[in-house]
Specification:
The complex is a heterodimer of chains A (about 325) and B (about 280).
Chain A: H1 2-22, H2 27-36, H3 38-69, H4 90-121, H5 127-141, H6 144-158, H7 165-190, H8 193-201, H9 206-235, H10 238-241, H11 259-264, H12 274-284, H13 288-318
Helix pairs in contact in A: 2-3, 3-13, 4-7, 4-9, 4-12, 5-7, 6-7, 7-9, 8-9, 9-13, 12-13
Chain B: H1 2-42, H2 44-49, E1 53-54, E2 59-60, H3 63-94, H4 97-112, H5 115-134, H6 141-166, H7 169-177, H8 182-193, H9 195-211, H10 214-219, H11 237-244, H12 250-281
Antiparallel strand pairs in B: 1-2
Amino acid sequence: MEKVSNQTADINFARQIEAKQINKYTMLDRFKEYKRSPLSAVLFGLVILAALITIVTVVFMIGYILIKGIPNIKPELFEWEYNSVNVSMMPAIINTVIMTALSLLFAVPLGIFSAIYLVEYAKRGNKLVSVIRITAETLSGIPSIVYGLFGYILFVVALGWNFSLISGAITLAIMILPLIIRTTEEALIAVPDSFREGSFGLGAGKLRTVFKIVLPSAVPGILAGVILAIGRIVGESAALIFTAGTVAAVPKFGTTGSLLSNIAAPLFSSARTLSVHMYALLSEGLYTNQAHATAVVLLVVVILINIISSLVAKKLTKR
Amino acid sequence: MNKVKEILMKYVFFISACLSIIAVALICYFLFANGFPAMLEIGPIKFIAGMRWKPLEGLYGILPMILGSIYVTAGAIIIGVPLGILAAVFMTHFCPKPIYSLLKPAIELLAGIPSIVYGFFGLMVIVPVMQDIFGGSGKGILTASILLAIMILPTIVGVTESALRAVPPSYYEGSLALGATHERSVFFASLPAAKSGIFAGVILGIGRAIGETMAVVMVAGNQAVMPNSILSGVRTLTANIVLEMGYAADLHKGALIATAVVLFVFIMIINLSFSALKRREA
């Protein structure tokens, strides 16, 4: 028996070698083909040219930012307080973290709930579901400056929240909502129905099934969406200039007034994030060196986010 | 008790799902309610077809900005789309594996870089180069188009790549078996089959380019006058809002919101054609 299978393996191996020799394609063959069809040579050249341009652009851009920026990173750029001498970006970094956390606080639960409704509860062919899909698609296409203007009209002016963390955070939350909904939806759909059936079969209710069985197995997919959203928040500037404003300090708790208003005070004060900080540096035109350094920090954040998201994606495909 | 919780949570999920509808409705309402009165006060024709934007003299014509947005976007498409499609063809059919595993993350990284960093790069690198070659300020339609072309490159490459990978390999193999070269097979059998996917990517790129603000503000020159050459400075619709919103008041502010309304309508048209295309494909 073993001998027979060994024999077939040998035959297969021989066939593979034969196929390799038949399909062998040397440079000479290639040139012969090009002589026969010059168009192919032209197309080949164009493809290689485009690839080179793309590679050179990416490498040059990242290299330029790093090489010009790293020498400009100085300790005084990371002092706790901003003033026009040290032009510290530390307050902006802290504000970026706060802004990201706040926006995610609004957008992630709502986005996940929304996706749960779409995947687990809505009946097939529901008219409302298609309306929700269309509006979510619309939201993801709206330019950030339009979000900024909307946030300005609604939160800053109409609700009287002024330029503040909360105005900016809610504006950004609306902006990233479609992203969270879409990635969560995909993650939920990928959970096999047998999980749900098993849970129902053991007597669990719908709600319990969703929270204990479906959601935990969808976590990596949801996480990937959240990481993408963080990238968008960190890089956003147009939507924040007219909602969160450009004050270069970390908001402080109030000292006068009632306890509640003291605690809420930071939410209602203006704060610039790192991207807005960079815009402010550039529009003032005096701080090119500091702008170089800020670009490096932003780039490093983006690289980190990309690495983390590819790790999460790898984990996703492994399962 | 459990039953109450089930029903309660069902409504919580339902309301969350309705939030995107509410958000779109709110955005439409607040933009239109603030933009339309200003547009009517200026006169819709005078506003959209007016060639002069001089808020101090009460002239609010946004035709230069509409043209600016269209020219810059068109330029980005002309440069970025062929480059992106060819690069995607390289990645799917010509690329050795080790290069692919470097190129793919690099292009994904390009997609994640904040637009303000692109603007900075354009200002520091592309603008001086343009100054050297063509003289003048170096800021203008061409500079903005090149920068935007780099920005939409990841979108075009990503969508084209997945469209090309979705083409059944038998198309390519069949063409090869009929004696066509590798290049001819890719370009005349696989690529046409991926046409609608690529087209959807191009529309997505147009949407990104027309809505881009911070990068364009840095390199387009921002003169609110009718552009007369490919090198002349332009102001896009988005730039108009960012530049003047900080100090605008009354009718001027209304006119800027009306500018956003025009931009919004542009984007809606682009989005609708995108989803129509996607539906036709499905």
